[in-house]
Amino acid sequence: MAPALGRLRLGRLRRRRLGRRRRMVVVNPPQSRRVSRRLSFTPGDRADRPTLAPAVTIRRTFREFWPGTRGLRRLFVAGTVLAILAAVCEVAAIALFGHITDKVLTTRVLSAFWAPALAWLALAVVAGVMSFGGAYVTALGAERFLLSLRDRVFAHVQTLSPDFFENRRLGDLMARLTDDIEAIEQLVGSGMVKVLTTVVSVVFFAGAAFFIRWDLALVTLALVPAFLLVSKLFAARFRVAAANERLSNGAMNSVIEESLANQSLVQAYNRQTTESRRLHREGRGWLRANMWQARLSGLYGPMVQVLQTICMVVILGVGAWEIAEGRLTIGGLLAFAAYLGLLYPAVQSLGEIALTVSEAAAGSDRVMEILDARPSVNDRATALTLVSRSHGRIEFEDVGFTYPGRHRPTLRHLSLTAQPGELIVCTGPSGAGKSTLAKLLLRFYDPDQGRILLDGVDIRDLTRSSLREAITILHQESMLFSGSVRENIAYGRPGATFDEVVKAAVLAGAHDFITALPRGYDTPVGQRGRQLSGGQRQRIAIARALVRDAPVLVLDEPMTGLDEVTAARVMEPLRRLMTGRTTILITHDLRHVPEGARTIVLEPLRSQARIRLKRLGARLAAGAGV
Ligand SMILES: Nc1ncnc2c1ncn2[C@@H]1O[C@H](COP(=O)(O)OP(=O)(O)OP(=O)(O)O)[C@@H](O)[C@H]1O
Fold first, then answer.
1. Entry's InterPro entries (predicted)?
2. Which residue has the higher pLDDT, 505 or 258?
3. The domain at 379-470+550-626 falls in which architecture?
4. Rounded to the nearest whole angstrom, what is the distance from the C-alpha of residue 166 to the centroid of ligand 1?
5. Nearest CA to ligand 1 atom 9
6. CATH 1.20.1560.10: which residues of the chain?
7. Per-residue pLDDT tens for 32-65?
8. Is 434 in the pocket of ligand 1 (CB under 6 A)?
9. Overall average pLDDT of the 472-501 stretch
10. How far does the centroid of ligand 1 lie from the alpha carbon of residue 403, in Å?
11. Dist. CA 450–CA 207, nearest whole Å
12. Residues 167-212: pLDDT tens digits?
């Protein structure tokens, strides 16, 4: 009868313990739930798939991210202390349970029941309060850590040159900035609290079991190394499985992001099925990765359960014999079994921490890969800041440039000078390097050869922010954010007043259509300004450039996508924008170019192979031998 009672009690205690862990999910969700939340991005071509980030050690992860817990450590310490106090209450409650069994249940003296019963109730309330407080402050520390880490990684990402983004999939980057950052928190933030509280709980529960019967406790503790061995065996596999899951998660995010962003194209071309298939393909990859993880978790649980059951059977068998010999009371055995009922889940939890750490390490690899990326263009230590408004004199001196990873140069021996206020039209066939010229002027890249000067100063000697303050670029596609018309225009210069916004809109020829919108300047423009027409978007972009009021202007195909009538209408505000500014107008459509503007024509550079072939052709035509 006693063993049956013991099992019953243990079952209840374990459920209570699990329930407590489930509440902690807010701070440190169990593996399976985190896995399902991480489902997020998509890859396209297999060749296009991002590769697994390089592995780094846990120590390096701590070295990198532990300083981020500064200012939050008090919260984590409070969370640890409160969780430990809750564990102490549990130890005391079990002692009371043993006491009630021996002094009330076996002796049938009801009067001895009330005092320990009330004390037990009080302990339960205190344990509940401690447990809540611990979970709350740990969650607060964890969320604050996440907030600052995300800010840090995002700020770093924004220092990286455009080629970083051109070579990566947006969905994958988004997954790194969200899910992977969360995994790091579970390693160095709330993860640390969990480790400490679990270790202390193990010590307490084991200590209490030793206190009752040290010899019996020694026998059962002999199985602890087996628990740890099992989790060690699983940890390495979990890490690879988690890395794969993250990879497919990022790939799935990318497909969703690309497909939704290009929905009008998808629907106009009737490619919904293709897109669904793409997502399905990536979803299957994600499913396989998750099933791998599920297999590991599924195997891990039962293996630990078997070990735990072996211990219990041994305890109850030896305990029954000890009771029969009169060396142990029933209350003592039940309390002993109850301590073990708490001890084993705590030891199991320690093992799971190893698995969580493996998974978190996979996420931190991916975040550190971003943090390790360095911008290809930097400010020199001696870089100057422009203190007064630039005159806007631009010079390209014998500039040559090859894109990273390309063999053929895009620009070679390019020289040009634009005087302050002058308009230079840059034209040439597609791929000739017109937009590249603008990227070099903004220092998205530095030339490999020659130099670019602003007012006689090499732009590499200026800070990037002050250089870019002096330049306004109007892109081929007007890039708007999803705020209101007013916010989009004011984006040109932080602190611009509403009057300045309206003035710029009037000059840009946008005021009339803006006031006709349902909420005037407060009308939301929709995702990327999709609720406006192409011409309207372009005029808002012109107003934004006017508000910015920089001395140098780069117009990159400003008429692209506009019909003849709209283009003519946009040209007028553009002329007003160009007035008094050094302007480089990049276009292959010379119809709307103001008369008298100086024009330079860029020609695509041919590859050496094509040059050799052309020479060979010429020699053959001239009758020369090969
Ligand atoms: N990020 C990049 N990485 C590698 N190569 C690039 C990159 N951007 C452009 N190129 C290459 O550089 C060449 C010039 O591109 P660029 O965009 O400057 O041409 P463009 O004259 O502006 O063309 P278009 O008139 O079609 O816009 C092209 O061959 C293009 O493939």
1. AAA+_ATPase, ABC1_TM_dom, ABC1_TM_sf, ABC_transporter-like_ATP-bd, ABC_transporter-like_CS, P-loop_NTPase, Type_1_exporter
2. 505
3. 3-Layer(aba) Sandwich (3.40)
4. 12
5. 436
6. 2-372
7. 333 333 323 333 344 445 455 555 567 788 888 8
8. yes
9. 86
10. 9
11. 75
12. 788 878 888 888 888 888 888 888 888 888 888 888 888 888 888 7
What Å distances lie between residue 464 and 7, 400, 402, 459, CA to CA?
A: 70, 20, 21, 8
Joined together, the tokens standing for residue 249 give 């998660």
Tell me the CA distances in angstroms from 419 to 11, 436, 579, 601, one per residue in order: 85, 21, 13, 18
Kindly give the distance from the C-alpha atom of residue 401 to the centroid of ligand 1, in angstroms, as a whole number: 11
Query: What is the CA 344 to chain-centroid distance, rounded?
Result: 35
Residue among 359, 340, 366, 362 at smallest CA distance from 28? 359
- For ligand 1, say whether the CB of 436 is within 6 Å of any of its atoms: yes
- Which amino acid belongs to residue 452? I
If you search the block for the tokens 């050869």, which residue do you land on? 449
Rounded to whole angstroms, the Cα distance separating 331 from 101 reads 5
Q: Collect all residues with Cβ–Cβ distance below 8 Å to 330 and sequence separation of at least 6.
A: 2, 101, 102, 105, 106, 323
Indicate where the chain has its CATH 3.40.50.300 domain(s).
379-470+550-626
End-to-end CA distance of the chain: 103
Choose which residue among 435, 560, 587, 610 to substitute to test ligand 1 binding: the one with the highest number of ligand atoms within 8 A of its C-beta. Answer: 435
Question: Half-sphere exposure of 383 toward its Cβ, with a 13 Å CA cutoff?
Answer: 14
Distance CA 191, CA 329 (A): 39
- Ligand 1 centroid–CA 404 distance in Å is 12
Q: How do 449-454 and 552-556 pair as beta strands?
A: unpaired
| β-strand partners of 598 | 424
- Residue 413 near residue 448, CB atoms below 8 Å: no
437 CA to centre of ligand 1 in angstroms: 10
Does residue 168 have its Cβ closer than 6 Å to ligand 1?
no
Ligand 1 pocket, residue 166 CB under 6 Å: yes
Query: 1 or 540, which is more confident?
Result: 540
Task: Work out the mean pLDDT of the chain and round it to a whole number.
Answer: 79
| pTM for the whole structure | 0.71
554 touches 474 (CB < 8 A): yes
What number of residues does the chain have? 626
Q: Which of 338, 30, 83 is nearest to 200 (CA)?
A: 83
Element spanning 163, H or E? helix 162-166
Query: For 2-372, which CATH superfamily applies?
Result: ABC transporter type 1, transmembrane domain (1.20.1560.10)
Instruction: Tell me which H or E stretch contains 600.
Output: strand 598-601
Q: Cα–Cα distance between 598 and 203 in angstroms, integer?
A: 82
Ligand 1, closest atom to CA 405?
Answer: 4
* 404 in contact with ligand 1, CB cutoff 6 A: no
Whether 245 and 38 have beta carbons less than 8 Å apart is answered as yes
